[in-house]
Amino acid sequence: MDAERRVPAPLPRPSARTLGTLLLLGVRTPHLVRPDTVGAIAGLLRTPGLGAAVYNRCLRVLGAIIYGRPALADDSVVDSVKALFDMAGIPPATLRLAGDVLKFFIGTPAAPPAVAALEELLAEPRLAPAVHQRLIEPLAYAASWRMELIGLERLIALASAEHLARHRNFLLANLIERAAFWAPEAFTPALLDRLADVYHGEPSFRYLLYYLGGRPATPPETAGAAAALMAGRFPLHGTVRARLGVGRRRVLVVHNIDDGQGDEIVRVWTRRSTA
User: Fold this and answer.
1) I want to staple 108 with a disulfide (CB 3.0 to 4.6 A). Which of 57, 70, 141, 190 is the partner?
2) Model pTM greater than 0.85?
3) What are the pLDDT digits (tens) for 78-102?
């Protein structure tokens, strides 16, 4: 008998036994899982009213299969997970599992639609705050691995959205500032003006400006705009430059944090440099 035929598909009903069998197959022998089995699980996730227990099992099965067979992930499977976030009455634990599965998609060919789904869901103000809470972390995870899929203008729109105000500082620190490291050439003077409004006096904005102003890849007009916005934000730069920027100087370094191995490295470097 063909090994492919050993896996039940489509699912006759969302029974715990059937889903449990599929979970074991997904973990132990994912090569036996058929594409239409994945499609059947996706169909269950799109079906309202099955209950958290069924959705949780489906998400665990889907996560196991995607981990072992990333090629089985496609747009339709992403849409099935996305549908859970738009259903009423889905408990936080299920949303957390759904968020974890979206993170799994980032390492598969379905990464582009997964990132798009995260952006679309976060941009939707009618969703409950608990739903947005479960989507922020997967988007940050996506930024760690596939930053090229996340548009800077879309990020700024999310960070400026009123319904995401409680997540604004997280979005600025973990996504927009990461984007400056990833693609400083994507920043324009107009985007910097928008970011000045979004940061709204946050001290960290000056460091973003300083970094962009000094990167060779930053467009000249953007670097100039960053310099203009940075005026007066580093009042001690002139004093420090005058006292330390010319001639031989001796500097006392005070390392006042306990950060394990790193503090030993700083102490060794300091002793060698002043010996």
Assistant:
1) 70
2) no
3) 999 999 999 988 999 999 999 999 9
